[in-house]
Design goal:
The structure is a single chain. With about 160 residues, this protein is mainly alpha-helical. Helix content is about 65%, strand content about 5%. It has one domain. It is built from five helices and two strands, in the order ααααββα. The protein has a two-stranded antiparallel ribbon with strand order 1-2. β1 and β2 form a beta hairpin. α1 packs antiparallel against α4 and α2 crosses α3. The longest helix has about 40 residues. The termini are far apart.
Length: about 160
């Protein structure tokens, strides 16, 4: 954005928000689907081990070892699920700011909300960034979120209708 014509503070400009989010360690994971899956699997395995340790204190599970392992397996999916939700919310916020015709901003940080209408050239530039860069990331996150949710729900159904 042209600094002289744009009243929006630099850190609140959608293009700069996109760049900062892309540089972030956590939010750069979904840039490639393989890296996101790898990171989520690492978090899932760590959570699985933690849930195994926590569940091992139960007297009930001493006689039902299969149930013990399956409950730890399905409940540990909550960690990658929460991570993928957080990543989706952050990237979706930037996508909406990039595709919006108006930029809402605050000059002093004391809730003095202002609105600036983007010029056509900037709107087109940011729409291209949103479509080519952010939309594939959101698509990957939705796919992974769907897979994790399906696994978690199948675990709930197994324990709801199956007696071990």
């Amino acid at each position: 954005m042209n600094e002289s014509k744009c009243p929006v503070p630099r850190e609140q400009q959608p293009t700069n928000e996109f760049i900062e989010l892309s540089k972030s360690i956590i939010f750069s994971w979904p840039k490639t689907k393989k890296s996101l899956i790898f990171v989520l699997i690492k978090f899932w395995l760590g959570a699985f081990l933690l849930f195994l340790i926590i569940s091992s204190g139960s007297v009930y599970f001493e006689t039902y070892i299969l149930k013990y392992i399956l409950i730890s397996f399905f409940s540990s999916l909550s960690i990658p699920l929460l991570i993928s939700i957080r990543l989706y919310l952050g990237w979706n916020h930037v996508f909406k700011r990039l595709t919006s015709e108006r930029v809402e901003y605050e000059e002093s940080g004391w809730y003095d909300g202002q609105v600036w209408i983007k010029p056509l050239v900037l709107k087109e530039k940011e729409s291209l960034i949103a479509i080519n860069e952010v939309k594939p990331i959101l698509k990957n996150l939705i796919q992974i979120f769907s897979i994790i949710t399906t696994l978690a729900l199948s675990g709930i159904l197994i324990f709801q209708y199956k007696n071990f």
